Amino acid sequence: MGLYEISLATVVGINIILAVGLNLITGYCGQISLGHAAFYGIGAYATALLAKAGWPVYLTLGAGFVLAGLIGAVIGLTSLRVREDFLAIVTMGVAFLFVGIVRQQEILGGEMGISGIPSPGMDKGGYLCLVLFFAFLSILFSWHVKRSWMGYAFDAVADDEQTARILGLDVKSYKITAFAMGTAMAGLAGGLYAYYTRFIIPETFGFIQSVTILSMVAVGGIGSIFGVVVATVFLSLMPEMFRFINDYKLLLYGVLLFSVMRFAPEGLSGLVRLLRKNRRPR
């Protein structure tokens, strides 16, 4: 495998962690988040600063993971009184707020970002293995949550919060937990991205990136682990496979998102189930 293929695979692995984390929030617990990239950025900036301070790789990645999860829990706590469209607006505001703060703080590099991030201490092939290992752990953890009692509680909260409360579920705790887990995974992805590029700027973690991640989840099928992973791989590689559409990538993502929500709300996973159903002998 050449350096180009290794770089592409590394980006795909990082995006898988991002999309699986958002799927925990939106797909499992039914909370629409348009600010996922902000927690991606929190992990990246925390990792970059600590790496430049001389911290080892696993401590910096762990710090970005924990910090993003804690801030995600706080955002989840402050967003308990809003739902659906209003929650989407609140989380979108978080994305704009993060970029605005980073641009104004010289300690965070301001408009110029942070450069000279130390090497993780391994070659590109070894680093790809590390990224894929964390991507696999993210998928495995998401699958375990889906199959556990917590996954059933998330489903109940997503379907009908009022009924879930009547059944005795602590809806607030589950919503905060979903936010914390999903945003912590975004923080881990941000730390991996910082070590991969060794240079980060605020625009990378803006609202457009949040929409891109949401597109991966929606196209794959909200709540489906397999569908989200397949859609993430496809949408990550598509600009490279079809370079002539690279300038129109955001337009294409918007069209895909609209088309899926309008004509196939269950995404790729729903289409697969429909095809299987139609192929069964009557």
Total of DSSP H or I helical runs spanning 4+ residues = 12
What string, H for helix and E for strand, traces the elements in order?
A: HHHHEHHHHEHHHH
Count of distinct structural domains: 1
Main β-sheet description: 2 strands, antiparallel
Helix content: over 70%
Q: What's the assembly state of these chains?
A: single chain
For the largest beta sheet, what order do the strands appear in spatially? 1-2
**Are there runs of 5+ residues with pLDDT below 50, and where?**
none
Q: What is the mean pLDDT?
A: 85
**What is the β-strand count?**
2
Name the beta content range.
Answer: under 5%
Strand pairing plus helix content: what structural class? mainly alpha
Envelope shape:
globular
Gyration radius (Cα, Å) is 19 Å
How would you explain this protein's 3D organization?
With 282 residues, the chain is mainly alpha-helical. It has one domain. It is 76% helix and 1% strand. Helix 1 packs parallel to helix 5, helix 2 runs antiparallel to helix 3 and helix 5 packs across helix 6 (149-159). It is globular, with a radius of gyration of 19 Å. The mean pLDDT is 85.
Short summary:
The chain has 282 residues and is mainly α. Helix content is 76%, strand content 1%. Strands 1-2 form a two-stranded antiparallel sheet.
